[in-house]
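Here is one chain, start to finish.
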Amino acid sequence: MTELTKMSSKGQIVIPFDIREELRLEAGNTLVISKMEDTILIKKIDVPDLKEEFKRLTKWGSVWAKKKGIKESDIVKIIHKGRGIKID
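Its structure:
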């Protein structure tokens, strides 16, 4: 699908409705813009919510540690050992 659009004096462009609808673009979506010679490429990308991703990873880590029999109190010792720090 090819559409025509114009750039505003502020460098803004309008993505035509049909293209926005087909790609399910909404306000707030993240787009990456690349330049290749005289061509501009715009691609929709999904960027995970960092807070949600952190929650997901810490939950996974907790489940993994429990399966391995690692207690929360052991974590500091494990970190120090990995860094080569001696604790008495």
